[in-house]
Design goal:
The protein is an alpha+beta fold and 258 residues long. 57% of the residues lie in helices and 13% in strands.
Length: 258
């Protein structure tokens, strides 16, 4: 991963607005990237105040896709206000991006946000993971032949959700999650996904086992949500609002001084 950081840093260095942070998401974060997997960068940019209050608004979301030295790089950033709103809407994606340990760019406000965002986590985040797992399973069942990759996504989100409900900690890496859950089939599925197209296809006879496992893990996640010590509601709106104003005003000061 470290050998690619310079290429990842280059793509963020030419963005039109300052960044609060940029991290790696996708299969590299989840622990099962193939040799040709895209690099999914996610982060937060800071629109200058005139682009927020003026008639000509700045871009709330910026998407960039390019190939650099044979690497497919996909960058998506949200303006800080939109990102904070997503945090308050119990969005598991943005939590995982915020807490990703694969950091390409960071600021002191990034760390401040991580400290505040822990108060955004509620037992209702389970709905995000249940919904995502449901959608991935539907896609998996429609495929012919059925591939290992979407199945890994199903188990990844279910284990992330269970772990979040039980501990309040965001962990998106399936390998690390399985150190806790010890599901014997996870290492085999990852190995098959990494082994290339030929090995990453499942036989029909295998599907019923994985279907039962999905149902079992869904039930565990539902139970973990109902018994979780996490709060039902977030109390982070006021401190997030204060951080938003501070960062926005700071960006105005920087642009004025320049």
């Amino acid at each position: 991963m470290t050998e690619y950081i310079s290429n990842l840093a280059q793509i963020i260095s030419v963005q039109p607005y300052p960044l609060l942070f940029a991290t790696v998401s996708g299969s590299h974060l989840y622990g099962f990237p193939s040799a040709d997997s895209d690099f999914d960068l996610r982060g937060v940019h800071i629109l200058p105040l005139p682009k927020v209050i003026g008639l000509i608004a700045g871009e709330e979301t910026i998407e960039v896709s390019e190939v650099r030295e044979g690497m497919q790089l996909d960058l998506v950033t949200h303006d800080i206000k939109k990102f904070f709103e997503l945090l308050l809407k119990r969005n598991g994606y943005v939590l995982e991006q915020l807490y990703s340990p694969l950091i390409v760019y960071s600021t002191k406000e990034h760390q401040e946000l991580k400290n505040l965002a822990s108060n955004c986590i509620t037992k209702h985040h389970s709905h995000h993971y249940l919904g995502f797992a449901h959608n991935q399973w539907k896609l998996f069942e429609k495929e012919q032949p059925r591939r290992v990759k979407p199945l890994l996504y199903v188990y990844r989100v279910l284990l992330t959700g269970i772990h979040l409900m039980q501990t309040g900690e965001v962990e998106a890496n399936l390998v690390k999650l399985n150190e806790k859950f010890q599901l014997s089939y996870i290492p085999d599925l990852i190995a098959r996904k990494l082994g290339g197209e030929e090995k990453s296809v499942l036989e029909d006879a295998e599907i019923e086992f994985y279907r039962q496992e999905r149902v079992r893990l869904v039930n565990i996640l539902v139970d973990a949500s109902s018994t979780s010590h996490l709060p039902s509601n977030s109390d982070a709106k006021v401190p997030l609002n204060e951080l938003l104003i501070k960062v926005r005003m700071s960006s105005l000061s920087c642009s004025t001084s320049n």
